[in-house]
Amino acid sequence: MTIKDIPFTCSKHFKNYPCTHRQWKHKGHCRYIHGYSRSFTFCFASNGLDENGFVVDFSSLRPLEDKLREHFDHTFLVNFDDPHLETWKKLHSEEVLDLRIMNNVGMESTAELVWGWANDLLFSRDKGRSCCWKAIAYENEINSASYTFPPEWFNFEILR
Q1: Any residues with CB less than 8 A from the CB of 5 and at least 6 apart, and which?
Q2: Is 83 helix (H, G, I), strand (E, B) or coil?
Q3: Residue 7 — pLDDT band, cuts 50, 70, 90?
Q4: Which pTM value belongs to this model?
Q5: 35 has which bridge partners?
Q6: What is the pLDDT of residue 108?
Q7: What is the DSSP string of 95-138?
Q8: Which domains does the chain have, with CATH numbers?
Q9: Mapping DSSP to helix (H, G, I), strand (E, B) and coil, where does residue 80 land?
Q10: What is the 3-state secondary structure (H, E, C) of 12-62?
Q11: What whole-number distance in Å separates Cα of residue 103 and Cα of residue 80?
Q12: Which of 134, 156, 139 is nearest to 11 (CA)?
C-alpha cells in the first residue's frame, strides 16, 4: 500500500515567515545574503479519523506553527559549514541578527527539516494513526521545493 491508497488526507498552509539566508557555495548571486518570506504546506494522511472526524485537528498544530515562527520569522539562516560562521555568531551575540544554523538552508533541505518536525509532533500524539507524507517549502510565490516520504512508522493498515 502507498500514500495514494490512503483514504483520508488533508493539508495545512502556514505563510509569511520573513527571513534571510545565503548559499555560500553558490557561484552566483545566491552566495550573498538575501531574503524571502517563506511559507509551508503540510500534507497529512490517515487510515482513520480521530474522535472529531479529522485526519489532523488543525488547532492541534500550534506547536508546529510556533516552531516555524521561532526558526524562520525575522531570522538569518546559514549552513553549519559557512566560512563566516564565527562572524555570524558574533553578530548574533551583539543582537544584530537572529542566527539559525542549519545543515543546509536550501528549500529542499528546509522541506525535509519541517517534514520531520511535523512527524515528530504527530507521532508523539497519534502513535502512527496520522502522518505528514509531504512538506512543501516556498521561498516566495513562484519557487518551492518539497520532501515527499511517508515516515517508516506510519501504519498503512486500514483501520476501518
Answers
A1: 156
A2: coil
A3: confident
A4: 0.93
A5: 20
A6: 98
A7: TSS-EEEES--SHHHHHHHHHHHHHHHHHHHHTTSEEEEEEEEE
A8: 3-148 (3.30.479.10)
A9: coil
A10: EEEEEEEEEECCCCCCCHHHCCEEEEEEEEEEEEECCCCCCCCCCCHHHHH
A11: 6
A12: 134
